[in-house]
From TrEMBL:
GO terms for molecular function: ATP binding; NEDD8 activating enzyme activity. The active site is at C175 (glycyl thioester intermediate). It comes from Pseudomicrostroma glucosiphilum. PANTHER family: NEDD8-ACTIVATING ENZYME E1 CATALYTIC SUBUNIT (PTHR10953:SF6), UBIQUITIN-ACTIVATING ENZYME E1 (PTHR10953). This is NEDD8-activating enzyme E1 catalytic subunit. It holds the Pfam family E2_bind. Catalytic subunit of the dimeric E1 enzyme, which activates NEDD8. It catalyses: ATP + [NEDD8 protein] + [E1 NEDD8-activating enzyme]-L-cysteine = AMP + diphosphate + [E1 NEDD8-activating enzyme]-S-[NEDD8 protein]-yl-L-cysteine. Belongs to the ubiquitin-activating E1 family. UBA3 subfamily. Keywords: ATP-binding, Ligase, Nucleotide-binding, Ubl conjugation pathway. CDD domains: Uba3_RUB (cd01488).
Amino acid sequence: MCSVKSFLLDQSKVLVIGAGGLGCEIITNLALSGFRDIHVIDMDTIDVSNLNRQFLFREKDVGQPKATTAAEFVMKRVPGVKVTPYFGKIQDKDEDYYMQFNLVICGLDSVDARRWISATLVNMVDPENPESLKPLIDGGTEGFKGQARVILPTITSCYECSLDMLNKQTVYPICTIANTPRLPEHCIEWASVLEWPRLMGDKKLDKDDPDHISWLLERAQTRAKEHNIEGVTYSLTQGVVKNIIPAIASTNAIIAAACTQEAFKIATTCNPFLNNYMMYTGNEGVYTYTFEHEKREECPVCGGESREFVVGKDWKFERVLEMLREIQDLQIKRPSLSSARSGPLYYQAPPQLEESTRPNLERLCGELLEEEEELTVTDASLPFTLTLRIKFE
Ligand SMILES: [Zn+2]
């Protein structure tokens, strides 16, 4: 019975990223589909609020790492399956680690982590070595909605290519927050993004601390009143700050099943796999839609080298930073900029460099920059370096 199927299922080593609502389902489905060598990474410990849907965990497991507990449960339940857990961040591991897998499946709720793994797998591709191409299956859910996609790094569109498909409400332009709030969310963002650092200095905002949320609520309510905005509540404040997405167990089950089927098809080549994006919409009746998400030419991860950026000679340099933060497909929060000709133009950190480059913010683009000059942009949330090619209006 040594078919291609059993060979591939025995040989293939799969990595699951995330052992939460989606991850628990994915690991279980993989084990029940015949995958025998499964690895799982998760940086979280089990919280009592997870128990309603993350069914590999029980009350006695609260406080334990999710990855370890999930691995033990599945190994006990499905004999012959080896699940190797890692309790930590995906960023702790290097390319050698990722190179050992045939397939990576993400069941994450974090955009930053998805961007990181997608960019890492794209960078790992060596055209001389077909083994270096690791298919990435990415699942995600949001309430009754979800999506599953297959990314063949450098061949199909990558995660970064589709950043503009992210829910737009979650990113508010900083100038709207600072100057012209219209929504209760704007007031809450103002309190957390601008007022907290201004009044609290280096003290870190703890999103799980009720006192911190109450502090933000109070400030946001004052600001809302000044601008005649209604609807700032404690739960909305918590929701905006923590970016809470409602989790529904059955949506996770649907998306995890879709991801696992694609993994099975890729591992066994038994049937064609998803090309390349499936959307599941359960919030307005039931609707699924599959399409080929195309590569974005300007994608900083898998596309061209530099991105054209048009500025006015009479703009203050500060405006370049503001514009960068508002580009939906970049999702930059605190950009630092430099160029080969001028060195650091503006750095967010360390404090001495921030202070010494701060005067540039007031300078005019016409005197600070040159036509065709290439600027390097770095940001904590960017898993790569972005290059901007300056064009004057
Ligand atoms: Zn891309």
